[in-house]
Please model this.
Amino acid sequence: MRIALLSYRSKTHVGGQGVYLRHLSRELTALGHTVEVFSGQPYPELDEGVALTKVPSLDLYREPDPFRIPKPREFRDRYDLQEFAIMCLAGFPEPRTFARRVTRVLEERKGDFDIVHDNQVLGHGLLEIEERVGVPMITTIHHPITFDRRIDLAQTKNPWRKLTLRRWYGFLRMQAAVARQARWILTPSETSKRDIAKDFGVDPAKMQVILLGVDGKFVPPTKPRVPGRIMAMASADAPMKGISTLLEAFAKLRTERDVELVLVTRPAPGGRTERLIDKLGIGDSVRFASGLTDEELVDLMGSAEVACVPSLYEGFSLPTAELMACATPLVVSRAGAIPEVVGADGECADLVTPGDVGELFTALERMLDDPERRARMGAAGRARVEEHFSWRAVAEKVAEAYQHVIDDFTSEKESH
Model:
């Protein structure tokens, strides 16, 4: 099959969308399919054999100058003007404008593809692809962003900030409408399937759960772990990721023992995470790691005695599965799909109530004090990954879903 894979932004290590894009495209190519990725900035790192077509935006949220004001010469068309206007009105424009741009690009490539796979863009323009490009479209929804919105609003007290947050999440009305009209939807967990049906009003009969995979480079360490090292992988300033809960629990641990916390993220300068670290007085024991190579990331995951996933919600949580592959024992929130990933029996991880600082502190303390239990949990996590989470198996199931959608589209055309 000739596959067009769409993603409006594609960070490789931060966010499940970029990770999904890279590994799925590689494994589909290995199965003999032809894959071309269409992405806005930041552009993805792709493996050999996967083509990339850049669909540039104004890149209004790039580092180190997010919410920037473009120069007049940067504006190329009405979609650029729309993108800038929506940002100025406190909205998030990228899914909407990327969908329009990529549909225009694909229309110029009519006849080059058998199927288009949308990686949670869910912009109105994508609904025109089947008619304008003449091929069917399938969609992956990792989880409905309605959960991010609810958590952000619940943790915000400032009325003006609440208003701007509602504006920022205005794209969700569009995403829900597009999801309801999608031909077929892939999602990585039963939790996500249930929540997409509830929050977006999507018929569960047109959704298919395909678990995500873990890349083979994530392996147990060959060197000793660093005593007292705790790590987490999460966007530091996103309330949904629960980093504030972890920082408060870590601050209590720090008063009693020699521990360090490594966060794989880049916090906003002066943002909520940096302010909380200063308030708790733990700046000398917390460090951030970003811009890591794959090898550096695996080494870091394997260096921790304990890893923590304190999220308030996850549609799957790839970092959880990757840490399990590194045989790193886990303390995780009993939230969203995380229990589906680690298993509810407690063999691979301690599950705690999301947002409960005391419970998280106690679980981390118990884990740090019991090396035999850490080794047993790490081994169980590695075994679970080997049994359940393979990107090759994901790609095979996704390719079967493609064929189902192509057959459905073809028979629909023939009946007309």
